[in-house]
Specification:
Layout lengths: L11 H14 L1 H10 L9 E10 L3 E9 L3 E7 L9 H14 L5 E8 L1 H6 L8 E4 H9 L4 H19 L7 H17 L17 E4 L8 E6 L4 E6 L6 H7 L6 E5 L2 E7 L13 H16 L1 H11 L1
Parallel strand pairs: 3-4, 4-5
Antiparallel strand pairs: 1-2, 2-3, 6-7, 7-8, 8-10, 9-10
Helix pairs in contact: 5-6
Length: 308
Protein backbone atom coordinates (compact mmCIF):
# COMPACT_ATOMS: atom_id res chain seq x y z
CA UNK A 1 0.00 0.00 0.00
CA UNK A 2 2.83 2.43 0.77
CA UNK A 3 3.96 2.17 -2.84
CA UNK A 4 0.78 4.06 -3.84
CA UNK A 5 0.61 7.83 -4.07
CA UNK A 6 -0.78 8.38 -0.57
CA UNK A 7 0.45 11.96 -0.39
CA UNK A 8 0.73 14.44 -3.25
CA UNK A 9 3.81 16.19 -1.91
CA UNK A 10 5.79 16.58 1.29
CA UNK A 11 6.42 20.15 2.42
CA UNK A 12 9.04 21.38 4.86
CA UNK A 13 6.22 22.07 7.31
CA UNK A 14 5.16 18.41 7.07
CA UNK A 15 8.66 17.34 8.09
CA UNK A 16 8.75 20.01 10.82
CA UNK A 17 5.59 18.70 12.44
CA UNK A 18 6.60 15.06 12.08
CA UNK A 19 9.86 15.73 13.92
CA UNK A 20 8.23 18.08 16.43
CA UNK A 21 6.08 15.19 17.62
CA UNK A 22 9.14 12.96 17.97
CA UNK A 23 10.99 15.55 20.04
CA UNK A 24 8.04 15.99 22.36
CA UNK A 25 7.03 12.34 22.85
CA UNK A 26 9.91 10.01 21.89
CA UNK A 27 12.89 9.84 24.21
CA UNK A 28 14.56 7.38 21.82
CA UNK A 29 14.52 10.05 19.12
CA UNK A 30 15.67 12.72 21.59
CA UNK A 31 18.69 10.59 22.50
CA UNK A 32 19.52 9.80 18.88
CA UNK A 33 19.27 13.42 17.74
CA UNK A 34 21.30 14.70 20.71
CA UNK A 35 24.07 12.21 20.00
CA UNK A 36 24.04 13.03 16.27
CA UNK A 37 24.84 16.60 17.32
CA UNK A 38 27.88 15.23 19.21
CA UNK A 39 26.78 16.79 22.47
CA UNK A 40 28.18 15.61 25.84
CA UNK A 41 26.60 12.74 27.72
CA UNK A 42 24.50 11.89 29.63
CA UNK A 43 21.62 12.72 27.32
CA UNK A 44 19.06 14.90 29.13
CA UNK A 45 15.34 14.82 28.55
CA UNK A 46 13.65 17.47 26.45
CA UNK A 47 11.79 20.22 28.26
CA UNK A 48 9.84 21.06 25.12
CA UNK A 49 10.30 21.45 21.39
CA UNK A 50 8.81 24.42 19.53
CA UNK A 51 7.90 24.96 15.88
CA UNK A 52 8.34 28.12 13.79
CA UNK A 53 9.76 30.39 16.50
CA UNK A 54 9.92 33.95 15.15
CA UNK A 55 11.99 36.93 16.19
CA UNK A 56 10.91 40.29 14.79
CA UNK A 57 14.48 41.34 13.98
CA UNK A 58 16.28 38.05 13.39
CA UNK A 59 13.74 35.91 11.56
CA UNK A 60 12.46 32.42 12.20
CA UNK A 61 13.86 29.15 13.56
CA UNK A 62 12.10 26.10 12.12
CA UNK A 63 12.41 24.05 15.31
CA UNK A 64 13.95 24.80 18.71
CA UNK A 65 14.57 21.86 21.07
CA UNK A 66 15.18 22.76 24.71
CA UNK A 67 16.85 20.18 26.96
CA UNK A 68 16.72 19.94 30.75
CA UNK A 69 20.45 20.66 31.01
CA UNK A 70 19.85 24.19 29.70
CA UNK A 71 21.03 23.50 26.15
CA UNK A 72 18.98 24.34 23.06
CA UNK A 73 19.37 23.08 19.51
CA UNK A 74 18.15 25.48 16.84
CA UNK A 75 17.17 23.44 13.78
CA UNK A 76 16.86 24.64 10.18
CA UNK A 77 14.93 22.31 7.89
CA UNK A 78 15.35 22.30 4.10
CA UNK A 79 14.02 20.11 1.32
CA UNK A 80 15.15 22.10 -1.71
CA UNK A 81 14.54 25.81 -1.09
CA UNK A 82 17.59 28.03 -1.54
CA UNK A 83 18.90 29.53 1.69
CA UNK A 84 18.00 33.14 2.43
CA UNK A 85 20.88 35.63 2.77
CA UNK A 86 22.77 35.19 6.06
CA UNK A 87 20.29 32.53 7.17
CA UNK A 88 22.80 30.41 9.09
CA UNK A 89 24.27 33.49 10.76
CA UNK A 90 20.84 34.55 11.99
CA UNK A 91 20.51 31.18 13.75
CA UNK A 92 23.63 32.04 15.75
CA UNK A 93 22.29 35.51 16.52
CA UNK A 94 18.99 34.05 17.74
CA UNK A 95 20.90 31.54 19.84
CA UNK A 96 22.99 34.31 21.45
CA UNK A 97 19.86 36.37 22.06
CA UNK A 98 18.25 33.39 23.80
CA UNK A 99 21.18 33.21 26.22
CA UNK A 100 20.94 36.96 26.89
CA UNK A 101 17.21 36.62 27.57
CA UNK A 102 17.75 33.64 29.90
CA UNK A 103 15.87 31.20 27.67
CA UNK A 104 18.77 28.71 27.65
CA UNK A 105 22.33 28.48 28.94
CA UNK A 106 23.98 27.25 25.76
CA UNK A 107 22.97 26.42 22.21
CA UNK A 108 24.06 24.80 18.99
CA UNK A 109 22.76 25.01 15.43
CA UNK A 110 21.86 22.16 13.13
CA UNK A 111 20.55 21.87 9.58
CA UNK A 112 18.55 18.86 8.41
CA UNK A 113 18.09 18.22 4.69
CA UNK A 114 18.49 15.55 2.02
CA UNK A 115 22.12 14.50 1.44
CA UNK A 116 22.02 16.07 -2.02
CA UNK A 117 21.16 19.43 -0.47
CA UNK A 118 23.80 19.12 2.24
CA UNK A 119 26.46 18.29 -0.35
CA UNK A 120 25.66 21.08 -2.80
CA UNK A 121 24.52 24.17 -0.87
CA UNK A 122 27.36 26.41 0.31
CA UNK A 123 25.53 27.81 3.37
CA UNK A 124 25.44 24.37 5.01
CA UNK A 125 28.99 24.71 6.37
CA UNK A 126 27.88 27.65 8.51
CA UNK A 127 25.78 25.39 10.76
CA UNK A 128 27.56 23.56 13.55
CA UNK A 129 26.06 20.19 12.66
CA UNK A 130 24.18 18.66 9.77
CA UNK A 131 21.91 15.60 9.71
CA UNK A 132 20.60 14.10 6.50
CA UNK A 133 17.04 13.10 5.80
CA UNK A 134 18.49 9.73 4.84
CA UNK A 135 19.79 9.23 8.40
CA UNK A 136 16.41 10.21 9.85
CA UNK A 137 14.61 7.92 7.39
CA UNK A 138 16.84 5.00 8.32
CA UNK A 139 16.35 5.66 12.04
CA UNK A 140 12.58 5.39 11.63
CA UNK A 141 12.90 2.29 9.46
CA UNK A 142 15.13 0.54 12.02
CA UNK A 143 12.16 -0.03 14.36
CA UNK A 144 10.38 -2.24 11.81
CA UNK A 145 6.94 -1.11 13.00
CA UNK A 146 4.02 0.25 10.97
CA UNK A 147 4.62 3.66 12.48
CA UNK A 148 8.33 3.56 11.70
CA UNK A 149 7.70 2.31 8.17
CA UNK A 150 5.19 5.10 7.51
CA UNK A 151 7.49 7.81 8.85
CA UNK A 152 10.47 6.54 6.90
CA UNK A 153 8.22 6.58 3.82
CA UNK A 154 7.38 10.26 4.36
CA UNK A 155 11.06 11.15 4.77
CA UNK A 156 11.91 9.20 1.62
CA UNK A 157 9.23 11.08 -0.33
CA UNK A 158 10.89 14.34 0.68
CA UNK A 159 14.29 12.96 -0.43
CA UNK A 160 12.87 11.97 -3.81
CA UNK A 161 11.32 15.43 -4.25
CA UNK A 162 14.73 16.99 -3.76
CA UNK A 163 16.26 14.55 -6.23
CA UNK A 164 13.61 15.36 -8.85
CA UNK A 165 14.00 19.08 -8.37
CA UNK A 166 10.52 19.44 -6.90
CA UNK A 167 8.89 22.85 -7.15
CA UNK A 168 6.37 24.11 -4.64
CA UNK A 169 2.66 23.60 -5.23
CA UNK A 170 0.69 26.75 -6.12
CA UNK A 171 -2.05 27.81 -3.74
CA UNK A 172 -5.09 29.24 -5.53
CA UNK A 173 -6.08 31.68 -2.75
CA UNK A 174 -2.55 33.01 -2.32
CA UNK A 175 -2.02 33.26 -6.08
CA UNK A 176 -5.26 35.24 -6.40
CA UNK A 177 -4.19 37.59 -3.60
CA UNK A 178 -0.85 38.28 -5.32
CA UNK A 179 -2.48 38.84 -8.71
CA UNK A 180 -5.01 41.32 -7.32
CA UNK A 181 -2.27 43.08 -5.33
CA UNK A 182 -0.23 43.42 -8.53
CA UNK A 183 -3.19 44.87 -10.46
CA UNK A 184 -3.82 47.42 -7.71
CA UNK A 185 -0.13 48.36 -7.42
CA UNK A 186 0.30 48.64 -11.20
CA UNK A 187 -2.73 50.90 -11.57
CA UNK A 188 -2.13 53.13 -8.56
CA UNK A 189 1.60 52.94 -7.84
CA UNK A 190 3.31 52.03 -11.15
CA UNK A 191 6.56 53.67 -9.99
CA UNK A 192 6.93 51.07 -7.23
CA UNK A 193 7.87 48.44 -9.84
CA UNK A 194 5.94 45.37 -8.74
CA UNK A 195 6.43 42.62 -11.29
CA UNK A 196 3.59 40.46 -12.54
CA UNK A 197 3.49 37.41 -10.26
CA UNK A 198 3.11 33.82 -11.33
CA UNK A 199 1.40 31.12 -9.32
CA UNK A 200 2.38 31.30 -5.65
CA UNK A 201 2.66 28.64 -2.92
CA UNK A 202 1.00 29.03 0.47
CA UNK A 203 4.05 30.51 2.21
CA UNK A 204 4.52 33.46 -0.19
CA UNK A 205 4.18 36.45 2.13
CA UNK A 206 7.11 38.71 1.10
CA UNK A 207 6.38 41.00 -1.88
CA UNK A 208 9.50 42.49 -3.49
CA UNK A 209 9.43 45.72 -5.50
CA UNK A 210 11.88 46.75 -8.22
CA UNK A 211 11.49 50.50 -8.69
CA UNK A 212 14.09 52.06 -10.98
CA UNK A 213 15.52 54.29 -8.25
CA UNK A 214 16.41 51.31 -6.05
CA UNK A 215 20.22 50.73 -5.95
CA UNK A 216 21.52 47.20 -6.38
CA UNK A 217 22.42 46.77 -2.71
CA UNK A 218 18.88 47.57 -1.62
CA UNK A 219 15.72 45.49 -1.35
CA UNK A 220 12.25 47.01 -0.97
CA UNK A 221 9.89 44.50 0.61
CA UNK A 222 6.32 44.42 1.88
CA UNK A 223 6.31 41.70 4.54
CA UNK A 224 2.56 41.36 4.45
CA UNK A 225 1.97 38.92 7.33
CA UNK A 226 4.49 40.65 9.61
CA UNK A 227 3.03 44.11 8.97
CA UNK A 228 6.25 45.76 7.77
CA UNK A 229 7.47 47.62 4.73
CA UNK A 230 11.29 47.52 4.66
CA UNK A 231 14.15 48.90 2.69
CA UNK A 232 16.88 46.39 3.47
CA UNK A 233 20.57 47.04 2.82
CA UNK A 234 23.05 44.18 2.95
CA UNK A 235 26.14 44.17 5.22
CA UNK A 236 25.32 47.43 7.00
CA UNK A 237 24.46 46.24 10.51
CA UNK A 238 27.68 47.72 11.93
CA UNK A 239 26.38 51.18 10.99
CA UNK A 240 23.07 50.80 12.82
CA UNK A 241 23.68 53.46 15.49
CA UNK A 242 24.96 55.97 12.94
CA UNK A 243 21.80 55.63 10.86
CA UNK A 244 19.52 55.80 13.89
CA UNK A 245 21.15 59.11 14.88
CA UNK A 246 20.99 60.41 11.32
CA UNK A 247 17.26 59.79 10.89
CA UNK A 248 15.89 60.96 14.25
CA UNK A 249 13.72 63.43 12.33
CA UNK A 250 11.98 60.64 10.39
CA UNK A 251 9.10 58.47 11.58
CA UNK A 252 10.98 55.35 10.56
CA UNK A 253 12.30 52.42 12.59
CA UNK A 254 15.85 51.31 11.84
CA UNK A 255 16.71 47.76 12.88
CA UNK A 256 19.43 45.18 12.31
CA UNK A 257 18.46 42.02 10.44
CA UNK A 258 21.45 39.71 10.69
CA UNK A 259 24.26 41.55 8.90
CA UNK A 260 21.77 43.75 7.08
CA UNK A 261 19.99 46.90 8.17
CA UNK A 262 16.33 47.68 7.56
CA UNK A 263 14.57 51.02 7.36
CA UNK A 264 11.09 50.01 8.43
CA UNK A 265 7.57 51.36 8.36
CA UNK A 266 5.00 49.47 10.42
CA UNK A 267 1.69 48.85 8.68
CA UNK A 268 -1.34 46.68 9.32
CA UNK A 269 -0.87 42.96 8.74
CA UNK A 270 -2.49 41.27 5.75
CA UNK A 271 -3.58 37.67 5.29
CA UNK A 272 -2.66 36.18 1.91
CA UNK A 273 -5.38 33.55 2.32
CA UNK A 274 -8.11 36.19 2.38
CA UNK A 275 -9.38 38.13 -0.65
CA UNK A 276 -7.28 41.16 -1.55
CA UNK A 277 -10.35 43.35 -2.10
CA UNK A 278 -11.15 43.10 1.61
CA UNK A 279 -7.66 44.41 2.43
CA UNK A 280 -7.21 46.99 -0.32
CA UNK A 281 -7.03 49.94 2.08
CA UNK A 282 -4.20 48.24 4.00
CA UNK A 283 -2.25 47.67 0.78
CA UNK A 284 -2.82 51.29 -0.26
CA UNK A 285 -1.30 52.59 2.97
CA UNK A 286 1.59 50.09 2.75
CA UNK A 287 2.45 51.24 -0.77
CA UNK A 288 2.37 54.86 0.37
CA UNK A 289 4.90 53.93 3.06
CA UNK A 290 7.03 52.09 0.51
CA UNK A 291 7.15 55.24 -1.63
CA UNK A 292 8.15 57.28 1.41
CA UNK A 293 11.00 54.90 2.17
CA UNK A 294 12.25 55.31 -1.39
CA UNK A 295 12.54 59.07 -0.81
CA UNK A 296 15.08 58.34 1.95
CA UNK A 297 17.52 56.69 -0.45
CA UNK A 298 19.48 59.88 -1.36
CA UNK A 299 20.14 60.60 2.33
CA UNK A 300 21.10 56.97 2.97
CA UNK A 301 23.49 57.02 0.01
CA UNK A 302 24.99 60.30 1.18
CA UNK A 303 25.83 58.65 4.49
CA UNK A 304 27.21 55.53 2.80
CA UNK A 305 29.41 57.50 0.40
CA UNK A 306 30.70 59.80 3.12
CA UNK A 307 31.93 56.72 4.98
CA UNK A 308 33.75 55.28 1.96
Amino acid sequence: MLSMNIIEAVTERDVDLLLLEEFNVSYDFVVWFYQKNLLPRPVPEVVKAFHSVSDVELGESDIIVEYKNGHAILVENKISAVAQPNQANRYFLRGDKGITMGLWDSFSTCIIAPENYLNTMSDVINYQKKISYEDIRDWFASFQTKRGTYRSFIMNEAIEQNRRGYTSIPDSKVSSFWHDYWIFASQNYPEIGMRMPGKKPSNSTFIYFYCESLPKRYQLIHKVEHGYVDIQIADMADNLDDFINLFTDEAVEIVAAGKSISFRKEVQKMNVNNPFKEQKAIADFALQQANHLVTLIPRINEKLYSES
